[in-house]
Amino acid sequence: MKFSCEKALLLAAISNVSRIVPSRSSIAALEGILLEAGDRLCLTGFNLEVGIRAELDVTVERTGSVVIGARLLGEIVRKLPDDVVTFDLRDKLVMNIRCGQTVFDIASCLDGASYPELPTVSEEQAAALPQALLRGMIHETIFAVSENENKIIHTGSQFNWGDGKLVVVSVDGYRLALRREATEGGLWGSFVVPGAALREVERLLSDKEDETVKLVLGGRHISFLLGDTVLVTRLLEGEFLNYKTAMPESLPIDVRLNIRAFTAGLERVSLLINEKIKNPVRLLIRPDGVDLSCRTSLGFAADACEAEVTGTLPGAGFEIGFNHRYLLDALHVLPGEHFRLKLMSPLAPCVLMPDEGDAYFYMVLPVRLRAD
């Protein structure tokens, strides 16, 4: 096996596949990257759950395959001078790497045949989406994926595709993030993609409207094809939350707020909260504004934000508490300059939505407040 290519192209491919390579595995080959030289060079990283394969054009003198430790390979190529790199696999699986005056002989390589094969996704259904669109839909929902392994199905996002519309939903038991978008054609039905895989898909996707990603849905796996890179992941199985029944039917109080002003106030009063002190932030909804406050063992903080409030408030208003991080996560992805906070009571689920349209929906449970 012998090939040569530009360092920059090789480093980009290594960076794409190495992120999902496990640092430790019972299968030694999985701690490395599989390099296969044929008509092109193919690099593969796999952790038995998610696999990424990247291809690039190189000059191949001898075909073959080998596995090289991902961390070592990445560090070597990153430190090489910006020039053409030559890989020459010699006897006893020693990889000779040359670039300019720099030479490495890597003796810890494994035979490419020892590398587990990536799942093959039969093209039962396929659809193409603008990369920027899918990237945005993942970004606006992925933070609400559950980290609780007791409910595996909720550690992924559900894709609901049908009637010319794609809906992506994430839920963790305390909040629900939903993004919907009209699409032409596409897949049909519902499936759940692991959150870890979607984070890698988001990282690989471009924000250019003219570039597309192809989704290929199989019986148990799905693949995302982005140019010369493909990510394959298994689908999660189980009963996902019926988000339609979870949405409140009536939220009579509507509070219109400036996103930047409210976010700044919330971040200020949240300075008294840390990993050990997790007191809620209190919002006092008034007829013409919202007062924010937080009291912890570190002290007290208060701020205020103007608002347009419609609906009938009990008395002079009511107080409601939130985990500040659950609010900030949504505020950081809401589009536009203003958003709407819709409420019913201090203990009922609340909804954050864009000022216009219904493409995005975020529901969060409040925190029961104790008297100071």
User: How many domains?
Assistant: 3
Sheet-strand content, in percent, reads 35-45%
Structural class: alpha+beta
Considering DSSP H and I runs of 4 or more, what fraction of the residues is helical?
10-25%
CATH class of the largest domain: Alpha Beta
Would you tell me the overall average pLDDT?
Answer: 94
Major sheet: 12 strands, antiparallel
Instruction: Name the assembly state.
Output: single chain
The span between the termini is 71 Å
Could you tell me the CATH topology label of the largest domain. Answer: DNA Polymerase III, Chain A, domain 2
Give the overall shape, derived from the CA principal axes.
elongated
Rounded radius of gyration (Å): 25 Å
Count of DSSP H/I helices: 7
In the CATH hierarchy, the architecture of the largest domain is: Roll
Secondary structure tally: strands = 26
What would CATH call the homologous superfamily of the largest domain? DNA Polymerase III, subunit A, domain 2
Strand order of the largest sheet: 15-12-13-14-26-25-24-19-22-21-20-23
Which residue ranges are poorly predicted, with pLDDT under 50 across at least 5 consecutive positions?
Answer: none
